[in-house]
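Can anyone check this?
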Amino acid sequence: MTMARGRTIGALASLAMLAGCGGGNSAPAGGGGDPVQGPPPTNPPTGQLYAAPAQESLSAGEVETVIAQAAAQASAQGTPAVIAVVDRVGNVLGVFSMPGAPVTAAIPEAPNGQNIDIQGLDVPTAAAAISKAITGAYLSSGGNAFSTRVASQIVQEHFPPAPTTAGLESGPLFGVQFSQLPCSDLVTRMADGMIGPQRSPLGLAADPGGFPLYKNGVVVGGVGVLADGVYGFDDNILDVDADADEFIALAGTIGFEAPTDIRADRISADGTSLRYTDATYGALANVAGANLAGTPGTLVAVRSYNNGTIRAGTAYGSEASGVRAARAAEFSNQNAFVLSDGAGTNRFPVRGGTDGADIGAPISSAEATAILEEAFAVMSRARAQIRRPLDSRAQVTISLVDTRGRVLGIVRSPDAPIFGTDVSLQKARTANFFSGAFAAGELQAAQGEVPQFVGRLRAFLNDPAALTGSHAFADRSGGNLSRPYFPDGEVGTPNGPLSRPIAQFNPFSTGLQSALVLQNLAQHLQFVTLQSNTDTARSCSTLPDIAGQGTRIDNGIQIFPGSVPVYRGSQLVGGLGVSGDGIDQDDMISFLGLHNAGLRAGGIGNAPKGIRADRIVVTVNGRQTRLRYVNCPFAPFLDNPAQNVCEGL
């Protein structure tokens, strides 16, 4: 699979078709040591706990202003650019190309030059700019403003990334770049109208040059820029870059700046401050009064994203945006939001499992309701990690699936970041998939390199029956096995069996996660560049179709924490995923929410302790290392001083 610099989309597609011809380091929940605190009260907080964001949106004239300001900065720098603007739910409102702007952008090669997946590929500049704009919009909220530079910081093999931080664990959102994928069955497409959340052509971006846009403190979209011909990442946070893309994109935000007190540099993760931008407003050219009508360049069409015109954005929270407040009949908690089809119908209503023919006693509608309500209640009591002001309530999206991966309900808090919608579903499906008796067989039936990961995992664990339902895997567990060092971050150790070796790893090739969607990305990029009239299906991976309903992982897998499998006794019945805040908060909301639902409804609950993946011990370099299951925050609640709230459960 080695290719030289400048791999084309056609080459990637040929590779995918050729492949198609082939066969935490903290004590886990349930561990010993600290005294058992017991679960916190299950009585949920009542009343209006969350304020819904005001329904602000970008007008067509404001979209033009953002583009014109960015283009003026690009002209002042002498670096012609492609500039994209999206609204909060990912609708592409305009793409502008300046004379001399690069047509393609180069993805970095593997460190050893042996390119796998999309490493070394040249991708359409417009697709890269759109992905950067979507990233700025999707990662941000009324409580946090994150840029693509932040994304770069949190997806690499060490956190924070720098030559001197080797030996530290990977970024907290390691793998999130492979979400919002163009093949996802959750995200929508331009053909569906302005209903969001919309897909991203390249997933989430780690290349500096993407920022959120705000009006009156409300995130209304994002701007993304590609001018330097590279779609990469920043591997050294210790220096200050003069990144052409970042200066141009920052100029576009003038008048639409993120509030200072919620920018990423006011937020920390694991004691490390995040990095919002290396560019500064004071270093920008004077772009006041920039007018798109007098700007050299042209609006361009990007197939399946924008037709070459300027569009106004939708107001998040409105029916037209596809994300709105839940009605009383849809979800009991008055603070909940749901995904809607634009005509008033909840896209993912709470329901019972579809897999009765497979498992006999699927999750009932009442049990699904209990699980989602109890997880929502835990969220509403939890202290947020990534939101300002301090002691804000956590805001996340919660997804529940059955063993077939079919959605049994999705609910979210009003201002949860959009990215967590797709990611929470990825997490739910991943925990269910890897805990099932079907996992090994379905991976072995996939195309390309995917089947080889089963053998690698079994050899690594010294377990010839791995992935046949003997153990319950949370996303933290599978994430342990998906890092280019095992244990996570420890230099000199082998890579996890679901990861690339460190000599071949970069964020564009994570291992099984990226291999599963290689063919989908090839199909989609060929479609976008008019090399094919067939877009990728609304199903990520070439795994077997289940009962004519799609695969069990139709929007890809996720490899950072925030999910648990759902059991009825020793029988797997589904998966629960949470995303939108700190990873320990996500773990707690899923694990404790499911536990409380079991107390309430009876019959369902977390995996039996004896089969959880934290019982798996691996010998590496002569010492034993245990996988992890979940890791909950130490004192997580705003209304209760309870500590170690997951211990012993």
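Reply from J.R.: I decoded it. The CA atoms of residues 192 and 341 lie 9 Å apart.
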